[in-house]
Amino acid sequence: MGKEGVVFIPMFLNRFILLTFISCIFTQIPGAFSITRIHYGGGGDWYADPSSIPNLLTYVDRYTNITVNKMEQRAKIGEDLFHRSPYLYMTGHGNVKFTNDDAFTLRAHLLAGAFLHADDNYGMDKSFRREMEKVFPDKEWVELPPSHEIFKNHFTLTNGLPKVHEHDKKRPQALGLFEDNRLLVLYTVESDLGDGWEDEGVHHDSQDIRTAALQMGTNIIVYVLSQ
After folding, report:
1. Burial 58-76 (b: 16+ CB within 10 A, else e)
2. How many structural domains does the chain have?
3. Which of 2, 27, 50, 115, by CA, is between 20 and 30 Å from 135?
């Protein structure tokens, strides 16, 4: 509470509220590619990096022939929008929690043809791995090497997954869960692609780092659409 009863709202909340409002009033292009952010439980900041997805989709629109809806969509697991969303995304710094129903519903949706990209924003790794064991207890994470098609299908990323932020100073990893050679889930860890997609003034990353992150995000989308 400020002077004379004025309530001050943190800048990141202002942007979050604004993007939510814009996403509600702008008409989506029928049939265009879109990304749905999962609003998961557990208390983690599922809404982190609010400018990341619009920036990525703008980049995809500019550098590919894919028609996109530039505003992200948001849904909880099981909602109507969730079931209409073939491309899912989640990120955050904190705890992730799936109910048993969430795990069953997410598993069924992914096996039916949907895809999930999870990007550790730093702090979500332990809980995400734990919850994904509920979703796919019969699957093991497989690391995608730099030679994998996902790193060279549109833009060439010779070293594989870019390192955007230091985190624990470990090498970045792109981990996948597969069903009959189809990539169901891509988990990017020790990379922080979402921070690289954010507005330039948020994290003050170099242009080279931001470009690599946006190119990687574009490659993921191109790869998934071509599966």
Report:
1. ebbbeebeeebbbbbbbbe
2. 1
3. 50
Query: Would 8 be classed as within a structural domain?
Result: no
Give the per-residue pLDDT at 5. 46
CB-CB contact of 173 with 188 (8 Å) = yes
Q: What is the pLDDT of residues 131-181, one digit of tens each?
A: 999 999 999 999 999 999 999 999 999 999 999 866 667 899 999 999 999
Q: β-strands 182-189, 173-179: how paired?
A: antiparallel
Measured between alpha carbons, how far is 95 from 138 in angstroms, rounded to an integer?
A: 23
pTM comes to 0.86
Beta-strand runs (E) in the chain: 36-38, 73-75, 87-92, 115-120, 142-143, 173-179, 182-189
Q: Examine residue 58 and state whether it is found in any structural domain, yes or no.
A: yes
Which two tokens mark 136? 């796919």
- Tell me whether residue 17 is in a domain: no
